[in-house]
């Protein structure tokens, strides 16, 4: 997920892809439900991005879309719905997620226009041909050499085509600063631990290369012309819908299992209470929890 705007999306398993058995990245094959749940809760944010694309940013209607690092294809399908003249290709390294993408496309009657392509990006693009829209939704930061990946993806664009890069923003918050027990400010401390995990995850990636995260500069170095950078709020105030509540509970549960060992005993005890469905002050029952965050999106043209 976008660093800065990412939630905690895994169980801390090692990645099972053959090339990076030392990776500390998520075991993506197990992440379908979490990614689907997140995309459904964040749907309004994506609606705004599509409106901006259609409204002023895109100078022509895309006929071919590549969703690079598509996961289970929620956004691939949404892109296909937003651009009914386009074929959309979900590209991912996790076969289990691409199967989900195919099921999803079938269930939405989009299987004529949505297809999948298994690839460990940035390799495996050459068989795909060109596209006039490349969507990179919180996937670039899971690739070791981000500049090389951007350059290869830029090569897949037709002249005048657009690359849409979702990276950066503000971490999503769910809890009041003081939620009535434990030491106030728990989410800030979880974020510090998550930043440490993120650094280790990046260092462990195949071909890991540190890059200053000046995304427009990286897009320009890939031969593209940065056209706009905008940040999109996700603001679902308390009390939460059942979907938002489930997302909050699952995200905190994952924080606990992935990062809990780095929290002190008081914070861990507070987190335990927050995720315990039997506790009346848990996020399963309280009405003062919310979803508030921001996703930054960089648009660049070939
Ligand atoms: C945070 S998820 C985002 C999924 C989707 N874009 C979304 O917004 O719901 C990152 C995705 O990137 C994929 N991924 C990570 N590294 C990859 C690589 N080198 N090649 C292809 N896919 C990759 C993972 O399998 C995972 O599905």
Give a short overview.
This protein has 302 residues and is of the alpha/beta class. Helices cover 37% and strands 21% of the residues.
CATH topology: Rossmann fold
**Count the strands?**
7
Q: Please report the first level of CATH classification, the CATH class.
A: Alpha Beta
Portion in beta strands: 15-25%
Helix content: 25-40%
The dominant shape is globular
Radius of gyration: 19 Å
Counted up, domains total 1
How would you name the CATH homologous superfamily?
A: Vaccinia Virus protein VP39
Any chance you could write out the topology, listing elements then pairs?
Layout lengths: L31 H10 L1 H15 L6 E5 L5 H9 L4 E6 L2 H13 L6 E5 L12 E7 L8 H10 L1 E17 L12 H19 L10 H7 L3 E12 L5 H18 L5 H11 L15 E11 L1
Parallel strand pairs: 1-2, 1-4, 2-3, 4-5
Antiparallel strand pairs: 5-7, 6-7
Helix pairs in contact: 1-8, 8-9
The chain binds S-adenosylmethionine (SAM).
The site of S-adenosylmethionine has 22 residues, from helix 1 and helix 3.
Walk me through the structure:
This protein has one domain: Vaccinia Virus protein VP39 (Rossmann fold). It has 9 helices and 7 strands; from the N terminus they run ααβαβαββαβααβααβ. The chain has a 7-stranded mixed β-sheet, sandwiched between helices. Helix 1 packs across helix 8 and helix 8 runs antiparallel to helix 9. The two termini are 25 Å apart. The N terminus is likely disordered. The structure holds S-adenosylmethionine. The site of S-adenosylmethionine has 22 residues, from helix 1 and helix 3.
